[in-house]
């Protein structure tokens, strides 16, 4: 007897049969070859004729006990029947899943999956159901509803105001999820807040270095103190500059996007998120959107925490007394800025950014002192 093997697809070592016949068809072929009826098989196995008939028709499953009986009667190992049955049931379950997912392919439009494909976060599929399954795999959830429920709790946002996530929510959650995926690749020491605060002084000195140097050093220094640091490019409609939250009870994460590609924004964002880690609890997830309206809509307690993180970053980069003294003597010259930066041992662009933010300078002035940071540099480093 020759047993036929179903055609399969192999994607990431996942066994995905195009078609699997019920094990009962193989039993029927063997019975025909042996000249044995279903009734005789039932007698030899000590099973009701109805049960044998249902197994052959695929209505009843082959249990481990039945597989052992088939081994004794038909002389074919029990593991063959067990594997055959599991393969068939997996196939039926996948067919049902495909039907379920087919009804949800419209959800794809809620996630910027084309941008994610372009960035290499997920693979591209022509089949919409397979593309949806790829996205669910990326998010580690079984359905779009599960994704909404998981992040609704994390972000303290009521996504049920609409039937599903809107595109802005989907883009933000995808960005945060990518951060978690990248963070999982980094082995961190146990978090030590005192050591982290000390190492921030070393990181502050890195503002004088080029991105090719400081990016890898930041991650290394943070890792040694138990803080995970990742850079993830923003997706369309995310409008996010950074985030800080705890991956678990002992590992905080700082995630930046480089929304504004200059060193003044980069360093302020980094120390802002560091401030959240040091000053605030483990339950909150802080997302910096730079949208005044969104900030004003946050609860007062949340606004207070954001202001505290802002103050921490500003004071850590430029001591308050030094800043006030500089403002009194600042004559609007480039030399004043570079001399002050050299004295503080920080990048001149940080001083320019602070002056622009406080409206001492127009946003078009002295931008040549800022350092550009782009993703090509990050990829190379």
TrEMBL record:
PROSITE patterns reported for this sequence: HTH_CROC1 (PS50943)
Gene3D superfamilies, per the entry: 1.10.10.2910, lambda repressor-like DNA-binding domains
Domain spans labelled HTH cro/C1-type: 27-81
One Pfam family it belongs to: Peptidase_M78
GO molecular function annotations of the record: DNA binding
Highest taxon of source: Bacteria
Membership in a protein family: Belongs to the short-chain fatty acyl-CoA assimilation regulator (ScfR) family.
Xref: PANTHER family: ANTITOXIN HIGA1 (PTHR43236), BLL7220 PROTEIN (PTHR43236:SF1)
NCBIfam families listed in its UniProt record: antidote_HigA (TIGR02607)
This protein's name: HTH cro/C1-type domain-containing protein
